[in-house]
Amino acid sequence: MHELPVTQAILDTALHAAQQAGGQRILAIDLVIGELSGIVDDSVQFYFDILSQGTPAAGAALHFQRQPAQAVCAQCGHSYQAAPPLAPFCPACGSQRVQVSGGREFFLESIEIND
Ligand SMILES: [Zn+2]
User: Fold this and answer.
1) Which of 8, 23, 58, 113 is deepest in the core (most CB within 10 A)?
2) Angle, in degrees to the nearest 10, between helices 3-20 and 41-51
3) How far lies 84's CA from each of 41, 59, 73, 81, 97, in Å?
4) pTM
């Protein structure tokens, strides 16, 4: 259920940006979601439809861009895409010193406004 506060934050950011740009209505919002963020597209859409009612963002299309999980090996520096659950070993050298370097992000990339 943590999509509610993040969706509210996305909406606030979009409304603020649209206001700054002097736009009338928000037509579309591009979001980037990391595979490991645990954010579910449908839930974001669900909350967005409720929260955006009566705002210039009502009816805006949400575009979701999935960002694959990324891991980097602290031993050899090998960087690789990893589907969850993450493999505990580096595929290049076998080291266990791997760190997740991407895939947890969730942010608003751009908005499209009708000016
Ligand atoms: Zn390695």
Assistant:
1) 113
2) 60
3) 17, 33, 16, 10, 17
4) 0.81
**Structural domain boundaries of the chain?**
3-114
pLDDT attached to residue 86: 66
Cβ-count burial 84-112 (b if 16+ within 10 Å, e if not): eeeeeebeeeeeeebeeebbbebebeebb
End-to-end CA distance of the chain: 34
3-state helix, strand, coil in the chain (%, to 5): 25, 35, 40
CATH match of 3-114 with 1.20.1260.110:
no
Neighbours of ion ligand 1 (CB under 5 A): 73, 75-76, 78, 90, 92-93, 95
Ligand 1: centre distance to CA 97 (Å)? 8
Q: Determine the pLDDT at residue 24.
A: 83
Q: Which amino acid is at 95?
A: S
